[in-house]
Amino acid sequence: EIVSAHRNNIPIVLLSCDKCGPLDKLAVENIQDVWTSEQKNTLLQYHITMDMVKDAYSYLQTLPVVSLQRYASMEDQESAVLDLMKQSKISTKAFSKNRMSVSTERASILITGAVLNAEAYSTCLNLSMLVQQTTRVEAKVVRDVGQVKEALAVAGYLVVVLSKELLKDESFAKLLLACVEGRVEEPIEIVTVNGDTSFEFPPLEFFKDLEEKGLGSDLGPRYGPRLAKAYRSLLSVLALPLSPHGSEALLAEQVREVCRRFRTLEDLAKGTKMFQVETLDEAEE
């Protein structure tokens, strides 16, 4: 693809994910060592030689690079997208008017999951944009207990994106406890979506072990019963399907189904509804 674009004068725009950049001069010179003879023969079938590959990869070194940090905030990622669109000579006018970044303090719908995993975090960000577009109510991805504390007084819903190893994630466990135990009088309503086909609901032994030992270094045995209760409550909610790599039409329909779970958005949208927030345990913070 790169060689074909270069030889046919098709503009190339570089997007660097997490500081990954083009190959350096030495790597380009030794690029023929990367592929097997069979793979080189496959390239030759498309009339692509190693010299063409070196020319194309050397050309990449001369191009400007747009930087995207996959763990950055929505605001920073939106800025990277705007830069990418400018480099590609795509109009940013419509996009600029509809930027989706919002303050955690105003968000009525909180979204979280295994946010320390880049793929799961991206799924949460995409879901927040789609939910906000569908409901016209502010939604925000929360990544730590501090953000939860900012939002609990106004948030009505917590959307949890289920994925593999989520229940073993100590950061998620802290966040879930903060949401559940921070709102006792008027509990935050939890909505779950299954965003990973490899997610498996845990057996009874998992909860028994959790009650006895807790999870990780900060949530030891004394947190076990509380954490097991929070997990049981979380998994008692029927999880709706979400296909992160599905078509736009499929995702739109799935998100509409998720949004039907939000039954009391009107007062939340007005910003008039406030909730009592409990003091959180230091370990959860």
Give a count of the beta strands, DSSP E runs of length 2 or more: 7
Q: Helical proportion? A: 40-55%
- Strand composition percent: 5-15%
Oligomer: single chain
How would you classify the helix and strand content by structural class? alpha/beta
Q: Mean of the pLDDT scores? A: 89
Output the helix-strand order: HEHHHEHHEHEHEHEHHEHH
* Overall form: elongated
Strand order of the largest sheet: 4-3-5-6-7
Low-confidence region ranges: none
Brief summary:
By secondary structure, the protein is α/β, with parallel strands linked by helices. Helix content is 45%, strand content 10%. Helix 9 links the parallel strand 5 and strand 6.
Folded structure, characterized:
This protein has about 280 residues and is an alpha/beta fold. It is about 45% helix and about 10% strand. The protein is built from 13 helices and 7 strands. It has helices spanning about 1-5, 25-30, 35-45, 50-60, 75-85, 95, 120-135, 145-150, 170-180, 205-215, 225-235, 250-260, 265-270, and strands at about 15, 65-70, 110, 140, 155-160, 190-195, 240. The strands form 2 sheets. The chain has a 5-stranded parallel sheet with strand order 4-3-5-6-7, with helices on one face. A two-stranded parallel ribbon has the order 1-2. Strand 5, helix 9 and strand 6 form a beta-alpha-beta unit. The longest helix is centred in the middle third of the chain and has 18 residues, at about 120-135.
